Structure formats: structure tokens, C-alpha cells
Amino acid sequence: MMQAPYGGTPLAEDIASCPELRPHVDGFIKRCFSGDPSALADLSYARRRPFIEQHPYPADVPTICLATSSSHPLSITAAAAHYVAERYGEKADGLVAQKDAAVPGARLVEVAGLDHAAAAMKTPSFVNAHGPRAITLALVALSFAV
């Protein structure tokens, strides 16, 4: 799992509980992604925790989780990462707190200096030290070691 919000994400929790912000974010999701706004609410802690309790991750499936964090001010997710750090005291990649990317029983790879975009988008090396190719190859190599 690469930067998966397995446990939820504080951003979804805050947006879902903010009546002033929610309609704007819902509209953004619909217009820009042609998406279903309920998908964001599904990432809130209020929805993820009951789901995880009802559907625990199978212990017999070898799993590696990549949890990243970034505090680089030029990251495209810098504002969100700063918000999570200030409000919750958690390291985050801008969208997912490191603790929420961990699956119980899985091997956890924590990498500082990578924002949420690093695994999918090529960004300047001074923002993210490793690009999508290097991250993917490293995780594939680790999967063979499991």
C-alpha cells in the first residue's frame, strides 16, 4: 500500500464536520474530478473505524505499507501537511498522516521528505528526493523480501 489512508485522514474528518466548507469541497470534487463527494466522507475516522472493525485486514496477506511525510514549504501539499502537524501534532504527507497509512500486522516503511504526490508525480528533487520510479522499484524489491 502506497500512502493509503487505511485508518482515515484528518482532512476528511475536518471537512466532513465543517458545514461551511463541505459544500465547496463537494462541488470541487464533482466539477474537477467528476467524483462522488461521499468518497471523501468515507475517509473520515467516523466511517473508517467501523469499516475496519467489520472488515479487518487479513493477517495472512503479506503487506508492506509506505507512509510518507513532508515539511518542505514548496511541496504542493505543504499547506495541508502543516495544518495536520499544527492541529493534530502528526507527521503527514499533506493528505495522509503517517499513522493512518499503517495497517496492523503489515511491514511499515516510513519515509520523511516525500509528499503525497511523490509516488505518482515527478517533482523537483529539492522537494521530493525520490521520484515515482525509485519509490515503486524499492517497494517492489521489498515485497520480494517479505
Layout of helices and strands:
Elements: H1 10-16, H2 22-33, H3 38-41, H4 45-54, E1 64-69, H5 78-88, E2 107-112, H6 132-145
Parallel strand pairs: 1-2
The residue-averaged pLDDT reads: 91
How many domains?
Answer: 1
The N- and C-terminal alpha carbons lie at a distance of 14 Å
> What coarse outline follows from CA principal-axis ratios?
globular
- Strand arrangement, major sheet: 1-2
Beta-strand content bin: 5-15%
Q: Number of helical segments? A: 6
Strand count, sense and barrel status of the largest sheet are: 2 strands, parallel
Helix-residue proportion? 25-40%
Radius of gyration: 16 Å
- Estimated structural class: mainly alpha
Order of helices and strands: HHHHEHEH
State the low-pLDDT regions, or none: none
Q: How many distinct beta strands? A: 2
Walkthrough of the structure:
The protein is mainly alpha-helical and 146 residues long. The protein has one domain (10-145). It is 40% helix and 8% strand. It contains six helices and two strands, in the order ααααβαβα. It has helices at residues 10-16, 22-33, 38-41, 45-54, 78-88, 132-145; strands at residues 64-69, 107-112. Strands 1-2 form a two-stranded parallel sheet. Strand 1, helix 5 (78-88) and strand 2 form a beta-alpha-beta unit. The longest helix has 14 residues, at 132-145. The model has no long low-confidence stretch (mean pLDDT 91).
